[in-house]
Amino acid sequence: xxxxxxxxxxxxxxxxxxxxxxxxxxxxxxxxxxxxxxxxxxxxxxxxxxxxxxxxxxxxxxxxxxxxxxxxxxxxxxxxxxxxxxxxxxxxxxxxxxxxxxxxxxxxxxxxxxxxxxxxxxxxxxxxxxxxxxxxxxxxxxxxxxxxxxxxxxxxxxxxxxxxxxxxxxxxxxxxxxxxxxxxxxxxxxxxxxxxxxxxxxxxxxxxxxxxxxxxxxxxxxxxxxxxxxxxxxxxxxxxxxxxxxxxxxxxxxxxxxxxxxxxxxxxxxxxxxxxxxxxxxxxxxxxxxxxxxxxxxxxxxxxxxxxxxxxxxxxxxxxxxxxxxxxxxxxxxxxxxxxxxxxxxxxxxxxxxxxxxxxxxxxxxxxxxxxxxxxxxxxxxxxxxxxxxxxxxxxxxxxxxxxxxxxxxxxxxxxxxxxxxxxxxxxxxxxxxxxxxxxxxxxxxxxxxxxxxxxxxxxxxxxxxxxxxxxxxxxxxxxxxxxxxxxxxxxxxxxxxxxxxxxxxxxxxxxxxxxxxx
Length: 519
Prior knowledge:
The chain is α/β, with parallel strands linked by helices. It is built from 21 helices and 17 strands. It has helices at residues 2-17, 20-45, 47-66, 71-83, 85-96, 101-115, 123-132, 134-146, 163-175, 192-206, 219-222, 228-233, 302-314, 354-365, 381-392, 408-415, 418-424, 457-462, 475-487, 495-499, 503-514; strands at residues 155-160, 180-185, 210-216, 238-242, 261-264, 268-272, 289-291, 294-299, 340-346, 369-373, 396-402, 427-431, 434-436, 440-443, 447-451, 465-471, 490-492. Strands 9-16-15-14-10-11-12-17 form an eight-stranded mixed beta sheet, sandwiched between helices. A seven-stranded mixed beta sheet has the order 1-8-6-5-2-3-4, sandwiched between helices. Strand 5 and strand 6 form a beta hairpin. Helix 8 (134-146) packs antiparallel against helix 14 (354-365). The two termini are 36 Å apart.
């Protein structure tokens, strides 16, 4: 058995190393190495060049100090420039020149304008929200007027406390598709889950249903062959790779498509933390029991997820989003659920941190409690201040984290925040059966958000993300009940336990915290 596992690992590594993906990664590493070696040699070549880089370093530092970047990013870049004047300065200039991102930024702006007629706010719904929850209406006004994500009523929501629950519902809804299926996922891996979904997609495509499938380019590194999308297209399924890995250094490749979206006929939408891979549904065990969450929407709010998908589908193509043909049909629900729903998206090219703003709003407007599930805890100063201020104000703030991590360095780094949070009154629990991948905030029995956005720099600042803000909807009770049930399987982390961690463990965490914004 062990020999079989070893051969499987070796086979996987061989496939990666000698595939087109391996070649791409080697070429990128060679470019980085050439850049570093060239700068190192030039730095030592003469006093003139050294003087030039010192002056450049000073100019870059002045620019960083006066920039509007997040303070944590500023500190990390300043450290890089001071420690490595030549390499740090040139790399900062390279990143800020936004190589490869200007076209994407412009393309997203044009697509937003194209989608705007289909993302208009129903003024009556917004006015009703203002009358019921004035504080909540402020967030709705920001999302609808500034970001063009309307607030909806007339939407049913089903909450799934585990990935396997979501997958069973997804299978059923895919089977019902009559017109189109849109799938956009960060991770897709061969196995029972993907085989089941793919079998349904093939049959639906044969029946004449329009099927579009999009996965992030990171899947081509280890999960799929580089040209896997061509195999999918032969099945009658339209397939694209979002932000594919290319053999040239570009800041575009730092922004992954971390969204998980499925839209069926404009009537049903899924989102949450669950990807299309076996571990997310506990078909296999990787890091103990996998705790994840998702939601299913039926009704008016589905249209926002349709637009988010079409936006990503068209972003790298010179073609219109073709929104008109995929609108959510308006229908009267006999007994519509009360409550307000705002699906929202976030991307790194609009200078708006939508996901973080939603989290801030929930923390700042809570009156009794804020309960959080997140797999990662890599916080900027604003988030630390907001969390600790809420706890110091008497709000019950509880964070559930994994006990078995998927990334050791992220886990070590997360522990560096425990002491400050616990001292301020934040309660931190770890899920002892395994790994928490859920991204959930729930507050005061009336407010929640479920989506793809982790509490780390990459999700909050660098990736394409999505979520659903929910207010005064019956499903909030289901989310809070799941939190309480999950809490029973957790152990509370004490300040004594944090302080008694090995010195080497603490030092490693503090070192990693210096570069936390880059992780």
